[in-house]
Amino acid sequence: MALRTHEIEVLKKLREIKKATPKKLAKKTNYSKEGVLAASQSLSEKGLVNVSEEIEKKYVIQEEGKKLIKKGFPEQKVLKEVKKGNKNISKLQTKLGKEKVSIGIGWIKRKNLGEIKTGKIELTDKGKEFDIEQTDQYRLLNLLEQKPRKPEEIKNKLKNIEAIKELKNRNNAIDVIENKKRFLEITKKGKNTKLGQKERITELTSKDIRTGRWKKKELIDYDINVSAKKKFPGKKHPYQKLLDEMREIFQNMGFKEIKGNSVESSFWNFDALFQPQDHPAREMQDTFYISEPNKAELPTSELVNKIKNIHEKGGEVESEGWGGAWSEEKAKKVVLRTHTTATTIRYLSENNKPPEKVFSIDRAYRRETIDATHLPQFYQLEGIVLGEEVSFNNLLGYLSTFYEKMGFEEIRFRPGYFPYTEPSVEPEVYVEELGEWVELGGAGIFRKEVTAPFDVEGKVLAWGLGIGRLAMLKLGLNDLRELFQSDIDWLRRFPSCQL
Length: 499
Description:
Elements: H1 5-17, E1 19-20, H2 22-29, H3 33-45, E2 49-61, H4 63-71, H5 74-83, H6 89-96, H7 98-110, E3 114-117, E4 120-123, H8 125-129, H9 136-146, H10 151-157, H11 162-168, E5 174-186, H12 188-192, E6 199-201, H13 206-211, E7 217-219, H14 238-252, E8 256-257, E9 263-265, H15 266-269, H16 301-313, H17 328-332, E10 334-336, H18 341-350, E11 356-365, E12 377-387, H19 392-405, E13 411-418, E14 421-431, E15 436-439, E16 441-446, H20 448-451, E17 459-466, H21 467-475, H22 488-493
Parallel strand pairs: 6-7, 8-11
Antiparallel strand pairs: 1-5, 2-5, 3-4, 9-10, 11-12, 12-17, 13-14, 14-15, 14-16, 16-17
Helix pairs in contact: 1-3, 2-3, 5-7, 6-7, 14-21
């Protein structure tokens, strides 16, 4: 029977010690634990070694147990007060707290340390002599505080192992952990197998060939199925990787990335986008307003007057505006930007001649109730295309290309409404795992009321896409909050490359 060198060494040691863990054999043979496991798998297939698993239990102390040692048992505190003469339960509750006294009385009655008579605690003889430090519960906690213990260790050190159950009933002051241990045991066939044979090697050197030593050696095959020790090198966060993938898609379509300010004036965040000053989105319950500084400088009076005129009367375009009086003071209010469209409209105000193709991936902020699908800060993907001949079909084409490159096969567009675009659409993708269509943002063509004050030449295609929901679909998450948690196990498990 052909055996490799490390298989022979493992078999030799097992002939001496009969049964051992891979870790113990690794020390005995000077091989790695992984090398021993590989050898044991091969030896097991040849019937020379039996591989078995045993579950090892150990008891460990929990936070509640540490508190009991540090701050004392509830019954210990109650008994201490009663021995001082403070027997009245109401007064004890005032001094120690209702919950602590209630728990303490429960254990006092259970252990026959005292009785309740007319609202007072009367100690039994056992209660008068009781010392918590002489109990098995106290001893066990002290043992486990030193290190985790096997059940047999505890049995050897305690009079009554009932303490284990009692401590588990104390809000899980202790817990049990289970570890699987693998054992290798030599078989009868393994004991009788002859070990004298050619040396088996994994690499043939030039010296082996020149000297002819290769004739006395045997090359072995590589087994790609043998498990190896997992490595966890540093890698880019899956969410950051997804954001970079989106950037690359738009850059490959000829777009330039732009950045803006997280703190913005209401003028650029709302008014420049023809959003009425009484719009619900501008209320305190939806928007983060900054208290210091609470006012921003507005741009030139000429531009401010144009925006004012557009809002009140529709300006020089075919529009009636929103009517009413437009407030410059409201426009000066400082906010955390509620969308990254504030970034693109600022850019458009300074780059009003075609062609322009820009996008922005950045954070926006809204007063959202935190739940599985909402956070007060989130990433948004914003983009605009300025051109003389661009059309609504071009807009749908850009968005379709983006979602196709993100891996979605079925895309559709539904009519939508936004104050600053007309016509407007909401892109949706079909998610087979959910069996439904999922809406992922908004898009449209900027209205004349938005572009006219900035003397923009041509049409502007615009979109604002929510990235959080898209990330949940791509990364297989059910809760948006998981994107920002330090779940090391999930980060390690998540593949660096997905096909």
